[in-house]
Write a structure and sequence with these properties.
9 helices, Rossmann fold, binds NADP nicotinamide-adenine-dinucleotide phosphate, 2 domains, globular, 16 strands, seven-stranded mixed beta sheet
């Protein structure tokens, strides 16, 4: 089968494209013929070597890729809920294997697509699920609440804005360029600004009548994390879902204690919380599919590449210029 793989960790230049052995599913795995492949930050992390335990696999060529959707070709003997012919979306827990014509996955990381939802309709189904979980499981946010999300023009941010708007949430969103801001406005965010050129605190306070946002979505952490408390509402929470600018620094503890004055909180979030909760994961997916069916959410695709151009897809990913979801076709 054709696949994109690496023999060493590094930039997009380490990606090769060619023939690799078609995988065989183990007893608890399914084999999927991929119809669409998502490209995202987790792939960058694997490719660049953030998961050193994968180093041993490099010698034989490590197929990268974390997410795909397609049709089940074969299932292992212990697989109970999925059958050959089912259409599924897969998030690979190992973080690799999906930049290929075929990939294997453990049963619990696959979601059966319901009637009317084709693999090609859900580019970045993981984005939908993470966006939904960030808003409604972690943020527990609803009609009349306000939220702020920075760096919102990515696959997850563009989905969150659409979901939030349809739920009646006041949405404040920022990005690093005017081009990205234009898209955020088009998606319906109520307040949009370029965080490089504006004072975030001033804008968020103004947009929330001085109260601050009820939920702030933070994927950067670093030293800015502490500053976010200045424009977080009383009883508000910061949902920390990545730390692109490094781990939060001490003396964060002091800040956390001061949060008591405003009953504020930080909640770190990982989608892996659902790894041992397949029913909740499926319930989350069904809500997302409902939103696609009735048009509340349209996955915002940035650019489509053939799989053989995986290197170019990763160059776009690394450039920071992607707006929405990058996808590939095997
Ligand atoms: N916790 C979880 O379970 C979970 C699951 C999946 C993904 N994630 C995380 O969610 C975030 C969004 O995912 P995504 O797929 O939407 O990513 P994406 O499409 O690559 O978008 C990320 C956005 O982050 C902004 N950004 C801010 N600082 C950055 C930096 N230092 N380097 C690169 N980009 C930076 C960029 O916008 P600006 O140029 O406007 O800043 C970019 O548009 C990622 O950080 C991802 O790792 C978390």
């Amino acid at each position: 089968m054709k696949a994109a793989y690496i023999h060493s960790f590094g930039g997009p230049e380490v990606i090769r494209f060619g023939d690799m052995p078609k995988p065989s599913p183990k007893a608890d795995e399914i084999l999927v013929r991929n119809k669409i492949i998502g490209v995202g930050k987790p792939d960058y992390l694997v490719r660049s070597g953030n998961d050193p335990y994968l180093a041993e696999a490099l010698a034989g060529g490590l197929i990268i890729g974390n997410e795909s959707a397609g049709i089940v070709e074969k299932v292992g003997s212990d697989v109970k809920t999925i059958r050959p012919g089912d259409k599924v979306a897969v998030l690979n827990a190992t973080g690799c294997g999906s930049h290929a014509e075929y990939s294997v996955s453990k049963e619990q990381y696959a979601i059966i697509l319901p009637e009317g939802i084709e693999p090609e309709m859900v580019p970045g189904v993981l984005n939908l699920q993470v966006a939904y979980a960030l808003l409604f499981d972690a943020g527990k946010i609803g009609e009349g609440d306000s939220m702020y999300i920075s760096g919102a023009a990515g696959g997850i941010g563009t989905t969150m804005i659409q979901m939030a708007k349809s739920a009646g949430i006041k949405t404040i969103a920022s990005a690093s360029s005017e081009e990205k801001c234009k898209v955020l406005r088009k998606l319906g965010a109520d307040t949009v600004f370029n965080y490089k050129e504006s004072d975030t605190k001033e804008i968020v306070l103004e947009a929330t009548d001085g109260k601050g946002a009820d939920v702030i979505y933070d994927q950067t952490a670093g030293k800015e994390l502490v500053e976010r408390f200045d424009y977080l509402a009383d009883f508000g929470q910061i949902i920390l879902y990545n730390w692109l600018n490094g781990s939060p620094e001490l003396p964060q503890l002091e800040t956390v204690i001061k949060c008591a004055w405003h009953a504020q909180a930080i909640r770190p979030f990982s989608f892996h919380v659902f790894d041992d909760k397949p029913e909740r994961r499926m319930a989350n997916a069904e809500k997302c599919f409902d939103m696609i069916r009735d048009g509340r959410v349209k996955p915002f695709v940035c650019k489509e590449f053939p799989l053989e151009q995986a290197r170019q897809a990763h160059e776009l990913l690394d450039s920071g210029n992607a707006i929405g979801k990058i996808i590939m076709h095997p």
